[in-house]
Each structure stands twice: as structure tokens, then as C-alpha cells.
Amino acid sequence: MTTSFSSTVERTGAQSGDPVVAGNDGVLVLDAALRCVSADATFAHLFELDAAGLANRALADTPLPKPLAAALGEAADAALAGNGISRARVTFDDDAASRSFTILALPSAGAVTVVVSPSADASQDVAPGRIAHLRAEAALFMRDHVLSIVSHDLRGPLNAIHSWGYVLERKVDAKDPAAQRALTGIRSGVEQQVKLIEQSVDTTRAETRAVALSLAPVAVRPLLDKSVTLARASIARSRGISFAVESSLAEEQVEGDAERLTQMLWLMLTFAAEASARDASVQVSSVMEGGMWRTDVRFTTSAQALTDASSPHALEAFARRQALEPREAGRIAWGLALCKRVAEAHGGGFEHANIVDGQEAVLSVRIAVAGM
User: Which of 149, 233, 297, 333 has the smallest number of CB atoms closer than 10 Å to its CB?
Assistant: First the structure.
């Protein structure tokens, strides 16, 4: 292996332009002596190693490429020494191919968690399957949301018809066979509709009624960066949309499900890109306030961009059209259902005002911060 090595370590938080790909990140845990405590399967796959074989080995003694091991050690030392997040970049030649990685080191209680991500224009390298999975999750929760609305909105009129049926029963002549047949038909129709709702609508909804979470400490700024990269690869790049991220977050964490939170942020960013005119900028702000992690996504709505069939899209056409309809009783756009469900499952909330052509729209999510 010939080696061309370059690495820089920063004591600052993550930058919005740093490409980090959710789903391709390898995680390595080191102790204060830079001995490997554990490595996940993704980290092992990146370098074709046995994850179990890395445990309890000094970093310098592992079969990792020497430039990578050096950069990992440098970032880990900087994080431990400064008790704060550190970053490094490393590029080296491996089997005639150049490989680049971004390294994020986060210290905690005498150890440091190191996240290693492919960084050679990582947004170009996002696997199509990853984007397809995100789109499928958004569609699944949208289906559940629409079925919930259907179930709720049908039960109201059916209950009214049922009640008025009893009123009519006391008013009409009990000896009038035509009137009795009409009442029987009304009651039978209501019962059939209620049974249909219970057997078809409510049963289908049961698949996603409870959002299963895999909770663990999650560094929020890298999570935001990953989501921006995914949204850029999904739709923003092809439409010339840029993301301007404004945040002072560095090493703050929440107790949450990293995958679900990534899906939520990706959907907010992707929807904003879908709803913005070509070459527009989407503004993203992310802060900690009042025991909550709050992220706002601002954009100027273009109805033409949402409905233009000739432009690339990531979300379903009917959901994009429905988003432009006035909101009823605080309801959200159907296509953003996943955002609401994930936020509420994390003890927070999601909201947005009417999405109106030519006006600024804000998608806002709040996630509870454990221990604050």
C-alpha cells in the first residue's frame, strides 16, 4: 500500500458542508489509552476486518491502514484532551485507489466514540437503496396518517346517522312496513360501514400505530449533517437547492433513535427542497432551548415546483398537491406525517403553518432532551 496522508483536526463543531452519510458510518470506541473497546459491523465492513478481532487491541497494533490509525488516534487524543468534539480528515491510497474519510470523535467518561464516514463527495455515494428506504418509510407513515383521518372523519357522520335513526324510529309509524324497512336499511348500512372501518382501516393502521424506538445517546449535530447530505442526494442537488445551516451545536446529545431522527430530519429537508423554486436556498436552524432540541426549516413555497411533473421528485404527487390545501383544525400536511409521529415518540412535537404559494413556510420540530 502506498500512502498519501493528509489529516486535520478541528476543535469546532460539525460544519454543514461536511459530508457524513447516514447508514455508511462506522463506529469505533476507544479507551483513554487508545485501546479498542468495540467496533460495529459497519466499521469492520469499511475496512474488511473482523470487528471482534479489534477488541482489546491497541489502535496502533490493529490491521487498520496506518494513516487511518494515526488520524483516529490524533482525533481521539484531541477530544479527550479538550473534553470536546474533534474532527479529522484522512486521505490515503489503498490498492491503487484513493480513499477519504471524515472522522468525528466524541469523548465520554474516560473513553471516546469515533465515527468514521466515507467523505469523498459522500452525497454522490449515497446508495440508491438508502434513499428508497427513506421514501418508503415516509410513505408508510403517510398511509397510516391518511387512514387515521379517514377513520376519524367517517365515524363522526356515521354516529350522527346512527343517532338520527333512533330519533326517526320513535317518530315513524311502527306499523308502516316501508318506514321500518328504511330504518332497518339505515341501521344495517351504518353497521356495515363501522365494521369496514374496524376490519380494514384500523387493522391496516395497526402496523405503525406504535413507533418502536431504539434509544441511545445521539450527537445531534452530526445527525443534522447526515440528514442534509441525504436530502442533498435525494433531490436538492438535481434541482439546484442549497441548504444554509445555522447552528452553534457541537457536542450536545439527546436520548433518541438515531435512525428515526434521521428519517424525520431528512423528510423535513426533502420536502422543503421539493417545495422550493429551482436554485433557491433552504434555511436550517438548530438550537437547544428550554430542555428541547429545536430545528426549524424555512423556505419560500413554490406551488409550481411542488406540482411540476417534469421536475425530479422524491415524494408522491398526491401528497405534494395536498400540502398546498388549507390546514384543518391544526392538522399537518399528509406527506409530513412521519415527522409528527417521530417527534411525539421522542416527547416533542412537530408543527407548520399553511403552506401557501409565494410565502415563507417553516417546518418546526422539537425533541425532548433527557436530563435537562
Answer: 149
